[in-house]
Every structure is written in structure tokens, then in C-alpha cells.
From TrEMBL:
Residues 1-24 are annotated as: Disordered. InterPro entries: CTDL_fold, Sulfatase_Mod_Factor_Kinase, SUMF_dom, SUMF_sf. Pfam families: FGE-sulfatase (PF03781). GO terms for molecular function: formylglycine-generating oxidase activity. This is Sulfatase-modifying factor enzyme 1. It comes from the Bacteria.
């Protein structure tokens, strides 16, 4: 396949914007509104005029857009200007949720964040994508149907964090309830959320902002990617997603426009976060710590985690300097520093001057940098950061700074997803079960490329924004293996009547009853609203187990598997975990199909070779109207 773009290099819209030499014309001033980052000039002699042009643009843009800054005076929103680290976490991340005990574990999640990132200031609790569309549940259901969610929010608040909920404007094809704005405002009020992340949106419309402000005074809205200049007025924060910096570090346009506007640098698929961390450090902004992207492990290296620890510790201590001090970007440093790849920003407030410094090179720099005491140790480590403070009277916070060592280890911390292995069965299969012979096999599996990936690894590595045809396109993979013994796969799915008999004979009750057998009425229809454990319990009662996804496909390709009505996806014995995400492969497809967005799980009946990777939620939310199951049995080895 030939692509019209190189996914490993920034797109034109991601690249920094050159600032023309001044004085600037009206057209040039307006054009600078579209920048993500103002590119830094290579020649130090050009920098005083460059800074003057930036001040000229800011004054002109504020005049043109009638900027007041009133939104930043709201007491309830003041925290956003100091929100340096925010983590995006799926509700069912195994650091946040314990599947064995069936409860949320914020204490475990926060302990990991304290150890590796010096703690967090906020979290985005991600909920629906990438499982929404499997059935008709809408985005609000994936929050409101979670037992104990309000208590989880309270626990984060008690730990000193602020909480964002997520809004998916593209959710138009699931069941309709109230108006989106009414639903979101109600959710914010009920959960006590502090902010809303605007998925796929750069901004919210004014009436949207006003309604949310009524629901929660001081609500903070954070859009994805570049926020239009005129909306900095009422959006207190924004993602700096896929923002490419210039070779000589540049200035973030939105934060330069309003220092209290917090931006969070993020490149979700990159394994080296040096550039975005250094840009955040030089601009006095924050980062999005996102280690599990929709079920895919993209963990941060020890070096990058150490840089976050060092950065945010100083930022929190010196926040008045960073918010209110006079900011000089690309400040003059000691002779020889810049030639070695070292750049810095200067922040002056009263008798205090802080230099935030980065080293763009791969060599440690040990020469002179800036006057004052080093806050992060002497010199500037390769691909790392440093800070220097000069003050007539040393601030009390300097003595309270912990020792913060740089870690040079930039290796990616790989994780492998481990498959749960079922016990061998000895029961008798159904008479019409489809026999899958022992021996080697090779399968072609068809799937749709999604951000979830499939079995191992990330679907995108070091890519900028994945776009079609590298997103949501049809793909194949090969599965091969050896069946040590033949297996028999049930020709039909388990029905409601059969599952009811199981309940009556065994007294089975799930440990987590939420959504168990909800709304099942037709005795002959495939049983649904059962999760993996429910299906496993039934199959074990029958002396069997669930078929693996490969056994299901091998049996299905004989043409002998039959589908119930309505058609439903089938659970398979394919549960994997990498310690942060649990997932399974679904087979068969279903009659339900959510229309209107490519972000939904695909529906419709599917051929046996088609698979969907489903991330497993907890607390009963894996149970739904479109997933049932059939059993399988291990057969004795056939001997001559």
C-alpha cells in the first residue's frame, strides 16, 4: 500500500509557525492565530525582535478578540492554572480496578503515580470508547451504570486530585436519551466532576460552556489539540497534542496568550517524550501522562518518568514565578551552553530569577549555564532538564526540594499480554458438536484496524496522528498453532432456557450480579447479559469450557456452526492480560449495528474468520444484549 503521507513525521498542521520579522502586517498578525507553536529563531541576534513580535501579536489578538480573562478569575477554576500532570485512565485499568476483588483501587493507582511521576494533579476517567457500539448503550450509560463511580471520584478528590469526565460528541448512533448537553451537565453535577475533556473537539460552543458553568461553577473544559485563540477566553486548558517543536525551542501560542491557560503536551504513540517534556519545561506548562492508550501499553521509559518527577516538583514549588513572573523565552545563557544544545527560559519575579533549562543533545553538559544555585543537580544531563535559581533571600521551598536524580535509561518498558489457559475438560459433547481435529493449523484472521491493536504491541509506534488508511482499515493477521487433542465445538449457542435450567440445578449466582441476565425473555434466543465467568460456569457444568477463538474459527469454517436469533457475538476462551488491560476476542458478529461513527465497535453478522478485540470492563458492565456463547469440549486423543 502506498501512503500519501509519512506517519513518522509531523503533518504540516503539527509543525511550528515561523514569526515574520516585524513590524507585522494585519494579515500576518491574523495568520499567527493559527500557530500551535511559534518557532524559535536560530540566530540569538534575532531573538529580541522575535520576542517583541510575540508581544505585538498577543496585544493585537487580545484586542481583536475582545479578551477579558474573566473565566480565569472564577474561584472554582483557579486550580487549572496549576494542573501540571493529568493522567488519562480507563476505568478498568488494572492499576485502578481489581478484577479479582471486584472493586476500584485508586490507592494503588496513585501510589504508582507518586513513585514514578511525583504524583498527579488530575485524572481523566475514560469510560465508553473503545467498547461503545457493541450494543445500544450510550456514552452516559457507561458512566451512570458503573456501581461506586461517585465514590471513586470522591476518593480522588480526597487525595487532592481533580477529575475530568469525557464527552464523545460522535456518539449519535446508540440509544437516545436526553439532549447531550443536558445529559453532560447532569452527569457533571451528579459526580461532582471538575472538568470535561472534549474528545475529538478543539472547543465547545458558547451555549455549551454556559450550560456546564451553571451545572458546576468553575468547570474546566479541555479540548483536544489546538484551541482557537478566541476560545482561550472560556476554555481554561487544552491539549498540546501532536505539537512539533522547532529545532531551537519555540513558544506555545495559547499559553503565551494567557499564562493561566494550562496546556498538556501529549504524543500518545511516541516512545521518546523528550521533546514534549522539554517544551513543557521551557513554557511552564504540563503533560498528559497516558500509558495505556485504549488498551494498548505505551508506557513511559525510566528517563521520561524521571524527567516528569524532576519537572513537576520544581514547577509546583515555583508556581508563582511561572504564573506571574516576567517570562523570557530563549534567554541568554553562559557562553558555550547553546553551542552544546542547551536552551533555557528565564522567569523574574521580585528578587527571584529562575532558569528552566533543557539539553537537546545526547551528551551531558557540565559547563556553566546560568548564575544561581542548581535545583536539580549540577550540569544538564543529555536529553534532560535542569533549573537554576538566583535570589537575594533563598525561598523556603528550596530547602524542601527532594533530591531528584536524572535517569538515563530510555528503554521502552515492554509488556506482554498473557493468555489465560483453561483446564482440560472430560465431559461429553453435544451429539451434533463440530469436531476440530488435532494437529497443526494456520488461520487467516480478518479485523478492522483500531487503536486497541490486537494481541501484542501497539498498532502505531512513534507515529503522529494516525489517519485513514492506517486507521479503521480492513486488515488480516495469521494465527497458527497446534491442537494437541481434538476438540468439539457446540453447533449452537446456549439459549435462555438452557441457562435457566443451569441456574435451577446449580443455584449459581455471580459474585458481581450487576446486569446479570437483564431483559432476557425469549426462551429459545441465545442467552445474553452474561459475562465470561458466567459463560465459563455454565460450560463447566456441562463438562466443557468455552472454545478458543481459533477453535471457534476452525469449526465455523466447516459451515456447520448455527446461529441463533437474534445473532449475537460469541465469547471465546481468549482472555489476555498485560497487567494493565484485560481483553478477549469475540467471534461471529451480531445483528445490532451502531451507525453514524467509525469510533464504534463494528456490528453486523460476520464470517468465521472475523475477530473483534474487546477490552473487558468490570462490575458487570461486560454483560450486554449482543454477546452470548457456545461451549466446547476436549476429546480424547485418537489412537490408531
Amino acid at each position: 500500500m502506498t501512503y500519501t503521507f509519512d506517519p513518522l513525521v509531523p503533518r504540516p498542521i503539527d509543525r511550528p509557525t515561523e514569526v515574520p520579522p516585524g513590524p507585522l502586517t494585519e494579515d500576518q498578525l491574523v495568520a499567527l492565530d493559527e500557530a500551535k507553536i511559534f518557532a524559535g529563531p536560530a540566530d540569538p541576534a534575532d531573538r529580541p525582535a522575535w520576542r517583541e513580535r510575540l508581544r505585538e501579536w498577543r496585544a493585537d489578538a487580545r484586542r481583536r478578540h475582545g479578551y477579558t480573562g474573566a473565566a480565569y478569575e472564577r474561584p472554582g477554576a483557579a486550580w487549572a492554572a496549576r494542573c501540571r500532570t493529568v493522567a488519562q485512565v480507563w476505568l478498568w485499568d488494572e492499576l485502578l480496578y481489581d478484577f479479582e476483588r471486584g472493586r476500584f483501587t485508586p490507592e494503588r493507582f496513585l501510589a504508582d503515580a507518586r513513585e514514578r511521576f511525583a504524583g498527579l494533579d488530575a485524572v481523566v476517567l475514560w469510560h465508553a470508547y473503545p467498547v461503545i457500539g457493541l450494543d445500544d448503550r450510550n456514552q452516559w450509560d457507561f458512566y451512570r451504570d458503573v456501581p461506586g463511580l461517585a465514590d471513586l471520584v470522591r476518593q480522588f478528590h480526597d487525595a487532592g486530585l481533580h477529575v475530568f469526565v469525557d464527552y464523545n460528541p460522535w456518539d449519535v448512533g446508540t440509544r437516545r436519551a436526553g439532549d447531550d448537553l443536558e445529559e453532560l451537565a447532569s452527569l457533571v453535577a451528579d459526580l461532582g466532576a471538575d472538568g470535561v475533556f472534549l474528545d475529538t473537539l478543539k472547543k465547545a460552543e458558547p451555549e455549551f460552556v454556559e450550560a456546564l458553568e451553571r451545572a458546576k461553577p468553575g468547570i474546566v473544559l479541555e479540548g483536544e489539540s489546538k484551541l482557537p485563540v478566541e476560545r482561550i477566553e472560556d476554555h481554561a486548558s487544552s491539549w498540546a497534542q501532536f505539537f512539533a517543536d522547532s529545532p531551537v525551542p519555540g513558544v506555545l501560542r495559547a499559553h503565551w496568550y494567557e499564562r493561566r491557560h494550562m496546556q498538556h503536551h501529549v504524543r500518545r504513540w511516541h516512545r521518546d517524550h523528550t521533546e514534549e517534556l522539554q517544551s513543557a519545561w521551557l513554557n511552564g506548562v504540563g503533560v498528559m501522562v497516558w500509558e495505556v492508550v485504549f488498551g494498548v501499553w505505551v508506557g513511559w521509559s525510566p528517563r521520561d518518568a524521571a524527567t516528569v518527577r524532576r519537572m513537576v516538583t520544581v514547577q509546583r514549588a515555583a508556581e508563582d514565578l511561572l504564573l506571574h513572573g516576567e517570562w523570557t523565552s530563549l534567554a541568554e545563557l553562559a557562553p558555550g551552553a547553546e553551542e552544546a544544545g542547551v536552551y533555557g527560559s528565564r522567569w523574574d519575579l521580585g528578587d527571584q530569577t529562575l532558569w528552566t533549562v533543557v539539553n537537546r543533545s545526547d551528551q551531558d553538559y557540565t559547563g556553566p549555564v546560568a548564575p544561581g544555585i542548581p535545583l536539580l543537580g549540577p550540569g544538564v544531563p543529555a536529553r534532560g532538564i535542569a533549573a537554576f535559581l538566583r535570589a537575594e533571600t533563598e525561598p523556603a521551598w528550596v530547602k524542601e526540594l527532594p533530591e531528584l536524580q536524572h535517569d538515563p535509561d530510555a528503554r521502552f518498558p515492554h509488556r506482554l499480554a498473557v493468555r489465560r489457559q483453561p483446564a482440560r475438560t472430560t465431559g461429553t459433547p453435544d451429539p451434533d458438536a463440530v469436531v476440530v481435529p488435532a494437529g497443526p493449523y494456520v488461520l487467516t484472521v480478518r479485523y478492522r484496524a483500531r487503536e486497541t491493536g490486537m494481541y501484542q504491541g501497539a498498532p502505531y509506534v512513534d507515529e503522529w496522528k494516525p489517519l485513514p488508511p492506517r486507521l479503521h482499515d480492513a486488515r488480516t493477521l495469521q494465527r497458527d498453532g497446534v491442537l494437541a487433542n481434538p476438540a468439539a465445538v457446540a453447533a449452537t449457542e446456549v439459549t435462555n432456557a438452557q441457562f435457566t435450567e443451569f441456574l435451577e440445578r446449580t443455584g449459581y449466582r455471580p459474585a458481581q450480579p450487576h446486569r446479570f441476565l437483564a431483559w432476557n425473555t425469549d426462551a429459545d434466543a441465545p442467552v445474553t447479559y452474561v459475562d465470561l465467568d458466567d459463560a465459563r460456569a455454565y460450560c463447566a457444568w456441562r463438562g466443557g469450557r468455552l472454545p478458543t477463538e481459533d477453535e471457534w474459527q476452525l469449526a465455523g469454517e466447516t459451515g456447520l456452526l448455527r446461529r441463533g436469533e437474534p445473532a449475537v457475538w460469541n465469547w471465546t476462551e481468549s482472555e489476555h492480560s498485560d497487567g494493565r488491560t484485560r481483553f478477549v476476542m469475540l467471534k461471529g458478529g451480531c445483528d445490532y449495528r451502531a451507525e453514524g461513527s467509525d469510533w464504534y465497535v463494528e456490528g453486523g453478522r460476520r464470517d468465521p474468520d472475523y475477530s473483534v478485540k474487546l477490552l473487558l470492563p468490570g462490575l458487570g458492565l461486560a454483560r450486554g444484549a449482543t454477546v452470548g456463547f457456545r461451549c466446547a469440549w476436549d476429546l480424547p486423543e485418537v489412537t490408531a
